[in-house]
Amino acid sequence: MEVGFSEMRNELQSQDAVWRRLQLDCQQLHTELLKIRDYKDLKEIQMKHQSACVQLTEKLENKNPELLLWAQSQEHQREELNKIRNHLYREEQSHCSEQERMKTEISDLTEELHQKEITIATIMEKAGLLERQLKMELEIKDKLLAKQQLLDFQYKVIKSENTHLKEMV
To answer: Which residue stretches, if any, does this entry annotate as coiled coil (predicted)?
Structure first.
């Protein structure tokens, strides 16, 4: 786009230089016409000079609408480029914001996961302690049950001996 503007600027400068050169040429021709006023063909020279100036002016005037259209086109393209740049900038800002939001969300989720891992580890540790306590309690209850069964057996034996002794007495 900048190259297009540079080319347009160069073309305009070139056209301006041509226009100035033409003006200088016209002025020089006019000066020459004044110098040779005394000659018989002064009118003829003036006509040729005017005709040349008119032709050159017409050529420049014919180029002028083309240059204006081209300049308008360049202006329109510049506006479109600015719109695209603004849109791109907004999209880039939105993308950056979205990335930051996602980073924050990932960080929060990672922290939450870490806390859950700690909670799970704590629960597993407590479950291991409870399991050991239950095993110890079961062992104690098994011993007490065995002792109870032994006492029941001894009771029955003593009862049966007692009954036997009563019968004997």
So the answer is: 71-126
The first and second tokens of residue 114, run together, are 């870490």
Can you say how many angstroms the Cα of residue 78 is from the centroid of all Cα atoms in its chain?
24
11 to each of 7, 63, 67, 126, 130, how far by Cα in Å?
A: 6, 11, 9, 86, 92
Q: Of 53, 68, 76, 58, nearest to 11 (Cα)?
A: 68
**In the numeric block, which tokens belong to residue 127?**
């479950």
pTM of the predicted model as reported, rounded to 2 decimal places = 0.40
Task: Work out the angle between the directed axes of helices 2-35 and 42-168 (0-180°, nearest 10).
Answer: 170
Cα dihedral 67, 69, 73, 76 sign:
positive
Give tens-digit pLDDT for 15-64: 777 777 878 877 887 776 566 565 555 466 556 767 766 776 777 666 66
Residue linked to tokens 């056209």: 15
- What totals of helices (H) and strands (E) does the chain contain, helices first? 2, 0
Compute CA distances 43 → 36, 55, 92, 136, 138, whole Å: 10, 18, 71, 136, 138
CA atoms within 13 A on the CB side of 148: 6
Tokens 């700690």 sit on residue:
118
Reference 33, options 41, 25, 24, 42; nearest CA is: 42
